[in-house]
Specification:
The protein folds into three domains: about 1-285, no CATH class; about 290-370, Immunoglobulin-like; about 370-450, Immunoglobulin-like (Sandwich), CATH 2.60.40. Helix content is about 10%, strand content about 35%. It has about 450 residues and is mainly beta. The termini are far apart. Helix 1 (about 75-100) crosses helix 4.
């Protein structure tokens, strides 16, 4: 489903989109409120524009921010980057005022000499179509999502898109979002810049409010079951200062809004429906982070360990901090002709996955090994060596490959006029030779004339 922010002239309008179940509207009632005073001025520290997600900031799900323009649109990235960083720093400060134990988990990058949302991993995307393609409100959100999905489709990401190309469309819509589950990606939230009445980017006013509003949609609000949910949209209808109310003022500071008035609809409530406060796209500030150290025995053939929540993608050894109490599932991914021999540390067994609760520092490792081992058979004299495994039969020197950890029995069969004298190498004596292939083996069958 999808949520929208709207101007008052279209208050009653509800429009279905191709990718959504219904559309909710947030209206702007004019400009009576005082200009924004809550902005947190922030300089973006990035060097140059990147059309792709930079090296991911590790540990957990994240909100990645994109500035997108049509193929024939002007390049305003240098100025917009600072304005976006300022708006989102303002949103972050407001969110922590509303809930000191949580903050939005924005995707950042370790730019030098910078901290906070100055390190925002901000992508600049020039879309494949001209402005006219996206001008009509009808279908715009679906077009944007479709054009961005090929490059921004991580299951652990929500994508906040600032679209510079929606002015004058007459819809009065300031933003839209796919209303999806709190912990599931990819999904998109869009801010339509330049729409009259929707505020000015970088002032901590209505564009900041729109960003917070659409992100709440993207991580599950307002869910079915909420007692004050509007009848025909994903908004609340009990109090006009609620962030998720379908109306507001275009010049109003985000400071004038409340995150779930009464805490009984979508955030921090005691009901059985979705609670945005539990979303893994929020970072907890009330518990210490706990380190998870992962080690591999080798990375032969591309073997590695990944986690269900983005962060761990480890070819050798890595340590990443996770929110205290978060549950992380590790997956061992064997490379070509490799297998999981065993897990070590806090994990055990030989399965491909291991689930850990990060209530303390944890260490986990995995030992990979080959899927099979070679077995070399040498023949001295007249005779042959056979094995039921793989229909193995050898009359001269030969080598076969045998499944790892499989026990294989070899038999020595003398030729006419010859007698079996015994085994040499990894088998001894004259009895049947039984070998467990947990390593490479060499045996020699010795035959003597009668």
């Amino acid at each position: 489903m999808s949520g929208e922010k709207r101007l008052p002239n279209d208050r009653g309008r509800r429009t279905g989109l191709g990718l959504v179940a219904f559309v909710a509207a947030l209206l702007i009632w004019g400009s009576a409120a005082a200009p924004a005073e809550a902005a947190v001025p922030t300089i973006w520290c990035g060097v140059g524009a990147s059309a792709a997600d930079r090296l991911p900031d590790p540990s957990g799900r994240q909100i990645h921010v994109i500035y997108a323009v049509p193929a024939d649109g002007p390049d305003r990235f240098a100025a917009a980057a600072n304005e976006i960083a300022t708006d989102l720093a303002t949103v972050e400060a407001w969110w922590q005022r509303e809930d000191p134990s949580r903050t939005l988990r924005f995707d950042t990058y370790p730019f030098a000499g910078c901290s906070g949302l100055g390190q925002l991993d901000l992508s600049f995307v020039r879309l494949p179509q001209p402005a006219a393609f996206y001008q009509s409100f009808s279908g715009r959100f679906t077009k944007l999502a479709s054009d961005l999905l090929s490059g921004f489709g991580s299951r652990g990401k929500k994508y906040l898109v600032y679209f510079e190309g929606a002015s004058g469309d007459g819809s009065g819509v300031c933003g839209q979002a796919t209303m999806s589950l709190p912990d599931l990606g990819p999904s998109f939230a869009a801010i339509y810049l330049g729409v009259p009445g929707c505020g000015t980017l970088g002032g901590g006013a209505y564009t900041a409010t729109t960003a917070a509003h659409e992100l709440v949609h993207a991580i599950g609000g307002v869910p079915f079951g909420a007692p004050h949910r509007c009848a025909d949209s994903g908004h609340t209808c009990d109090n006009g200062v609620d962030l998720m109310h379908p109306s507001g003022f275009g010049d109003e500071s985000i400071d004038g809004y409340v995150l779930d008035v009464g805490r009984d609809d979508y955030y921090g409530h005691s009901g059985g429906w979705i609670d945005v406060r539990d979303s893994l796209f929020l970072r907890r500030l009330d518990v210490p982070q706990q380190p998870l150290t992962v080690a591999l025995s080798d990375s032969v053939g591309g073997s590695k360990i990944q986690s269900d929540a983005p962060g761990i993608d480890c070819p050798t050894v890595c340590t990443i901090a996770w929110d205290g109490g978060e549950r992380v599932t590790l997956e061992a991914i064997p490379g070509d002709d490799r297998r999981v021999v065993r897990w070590t540390g806090a994990c055990g067994g030989t399965s491909l996955t291991c689930a850990l609760t990060m209530d303390r520092p944890q260490n986990a490792g995995v030992v990979f090994g080959p899927l099979s081992y070679p077995g070399r058979v040498l023949i001295a004299g007249g005779g042959r060596v056979t094995s039921a495994a793989l229909g193995f039969s050898c009359a001269r020197s030969c080598t076969g490959r045998f499944d790892a950890d499989r026990t294989v029995a070899f038999r020595a069969l003398p030729a006419r006029g010859w007698a079996f004298a015994g085994w040499q190498g990894d088998c001894r004596g004259k009895n049947a030779c039984r070998l467990r292939f947990d390593k490479t083996h060499t045996i020699r069958a010795v035959f003597k004339r009668r």
